[in-house]
Design goal:
The complex is a heterodimer of chains A (387) and B (164). By secondary structure, chain A is α/β, with parallel strands linked by helices. Chain A contains 14 helices and twelve strands. Chain A folds into two domains: 3-44 and 286-386, Aspartate Aminotransferase, domain 1; 61-283, Type I PLP-dependent aspartate aminotransferase-like (Major domain) (Aspartate Aminotransferase, domain 2). Chain B has 164 residues and is of the alpha+beta class. Chain B has five helices and six strands. In chain B, the strands form two sheets. In chain B, strands 2-3-1-4 form a four-stranded antiparallel beta sheet. The chains are: A alpha/beta (387), B alpha+beta (164). Chains A and B meet through helix 3, helix 12 and helix 14 of A and helix 2 of B.
């Protein structure tokens, strides 16, 4: 039996993640400082962990409703309303997922018909494109550029719309660039969406990690609520990556479709994670703010250090990544990252791992301690001098 | 400089006093001289008292005994507990002194080379002070956490080295 031949061609032809390749390289090396980590360096705040332990002690070890615990949905609804000014019906418009990643998959599978086109900002998170492909759609990468601070340009979006275009993916604050989009900028996108009758899937997992501006949800723009599938979760803001708890807010038709897939494929998100998320929303604000302030301080430090060593680095206003340009070294993103790893023992992720428009850039996560950051940046500076 | 900024500078220093004013200025997006001036002011006005390092002496191989002592004091007219507190905190063995609400008045943390050392200090110096009515000595058996720092923290960085 040739087992490789039995694998579905759609899956077989899916390109491997650019991150994976780099992960293997890093795993072989010693004494590395990693700026390649896409998750908070904080451990989940103790009160949240403790609440989850207590729930286990009380015997919360069962399935929950497919939609997730009603109490949790109520807290999520309150939070979305308080923070972003959008209201959702807890019974018909909200569901709890296994991380926002499951939400991406559900949204694509529920909405994409064979041959439909999904416009995706490039560069952006690694799983959008494969999820579109797996759902039978066609991913259309919409380039964003450093000169425009990696914001989505409405004209570019419009120029790439074909009669098959159905969905626009939004992911701001953005991983890997750290770009955000203001209310005014999103409004210009909303006009394009309206004019072309698109649906928007908005991944707002990094919304709380917005610096110097109040975060805006795309769903809060006039006329956009029912066109938008809002995806978010607890991983980044509350340092809860491993718990795998996210949520989806959408109009009742979209949500019912997504719940249908979720109930057959997943059943429900783990209850101990849901109990932890409940505690996070009820009592986690102060700790979250403390973490956000710390990221903000490191962010300024990192951007400043890159600029001082002569690398162009636009100011990221969200997430916990800086995305400096390494074009002046004449190396490609991959060459630069590999050399940096071997010669300077610093791991970063080549921009191309997030899409072709990431070429000429590297993603540097500042989700690590100030001491580590200082040392890593010192090493990068020394490395640049050898080129 | 706003109150929040001032507090942020102090909080950063309280957490890590090895950061230079230049670093702090960058982290908060402020001019360096402004931060440097503020820090000097805080030093002069004794808001910033000292830049010290928290050391796990036990791990460093140093024998050290600590005791918390509850002290009942007869307060005095006009000065209350202050004079007695001063008599106590001047002793170099005394690490900290707090005025407490509740069952006793002063909480005194003492460090010495041995239990005998500490016991002698209490018997000879502390208990005999005028206006000290009684003392209750509690020896520290193990330090788990001090000044917000866990001594043997088992929470290391367990993240994957590279992730999306």
């Amino acid at each position: 039996m040739n087992s490789a031949e039995l694998v579905s061609p759609v899956v077989r032809d899916l390109p491997p993640s650019g991150i994976r390749k780099f992960f293997d390289l890093v795993a072989e090396s010693k004494g590395i400082i990693s700026l390649g980590v896409g998750e908070p360096d904080f451990v989940t705040p103790w009160h949240i962990r403790e609440a989850s332990m207590y729930s286990l002690e009380k015997g919360y070890t069962m399935y929950t409703s497919n939609h997730g615990l009603l109490e949790l949905r109520e807290e999520i609804a309150k939070y979305l309303n308080r923070r972003f000014g959008v209201s959702y019906d807890v019974r018909r418009e909200l569901m709890v997922t296994v991380g926002a990643s499951e939400g991406v998959d559900l949204a694509m599978r529920a909405l994409v018909c064979p041959g439909d086109e999904v416009l995706i900002p490039d560069p952006s998170f690694v799983s959008y494109m494969p999820c579109v492909t797996l759902a039978g759609g066609k991913a259309v990468m919409v380039p964003t550029i450093a000169e425009e601070e990696f914001k989505l340009n409405p004209k570019t979006v419009e120029s790439m719309i074909t009669p098959r275009a159905k969905i626009l993916m939004l992911s701001y604050p953005n991983n890997p660039t750290g770009a955000i989009m203001t209310a005014a900028e999103l409004k210009a996108i909303a006009e394009v969406v309206e004019r072309n009758n698109l649906i928007v899937i908005s991944d707002e997992i990094y919304a709380e990690l917005t610096y110097g501006e109040k975060p805006v949800s795309f769903a809060s723009l006039p006329g956009m609520r029912d066109r938008t599938v809002l995806l978010s979760g607890f991983s980044k803001a509350f340092a809860m990556t491993g718990w795998r708890i996210g949520y989806v807010a959408a109009n009742p038709d979209f949500l019912a479709a997504m719940v249908k897939i979720h109930q057959y494929g997943i059943m429900c998100a783990p209850v101990m994670g849901q109990m932890a998320a409940l505690e996070a929303l009820r009592n986690g604000e102060a700790e979250m703010q403390r973490m956000v302030n710390t990221y903000d301080q490191r962010r300024r430090f990192v951007v400043n250090s890159f600029r001082e060593m002569g690398l162009d680095c636009f100011e990221p206003r969200g997430a916990f990544y800086a995305f400096p340009s390494i074009k002046r070294t004449g190396l490609s993103s991959e060459e630069f990252s590999e050399k940096l790893l071997h010669q300077a023992k610093v791991a970063v992720v080549p921009g191309t791992a997030f899409g072709p428009s990431g070429e000429g850039h590297i993603r540097c996560s500042y989700a690590c301690s100030m001491d580590q950051l200082k040392e890593a940046l010192k090493r990068i500076k020394t490395f640049l001098a050898t080129l | 400089m706003t109150e929040t900024t001032r507090r942020s500078i102090l909080a950063i220093l309280a957490e890590n006093n090895r950061l230079a004013p230049e670093d702090i200025a960058t982290m908060l997006g402020l001019p360096i001289d402004e931060v440097a001036r503020f820090i000097s002011e805080m030093e002069e006005s004794k808001v910033i008292l000292k830049y010290n390092t928290l050391i796990n002496w036990e791990k460093a191989g140093e024998e050290m005994v600590a005791a918390l002592i509850d002290v009942k004091v007869q307060p005095q007219r006009e000065v209350g507990f202050d004079t007695v507190a001063e008599r106590i905190y001047r002793f170099p063995q005394v690490q900290s002194v707090y005025l407490m609400s509740g069952g006793y008045d002063l909480s005194v943390l003492i460090e010495g080379k041995s239990m005998k050392d500490v016991a002698l200090f209490v018997a000879e110096k502390l208990a005999t002070l005028e206006f000290v009515q009684s003392t209750a000595t509690h020896f520290v058996l193990k330090k788990y956490k001090q000044d917000g720092v866990i001594f043997e923290d088992k929470e290391e960085d367990r993240r994957l080295m590279v992730s999306p």
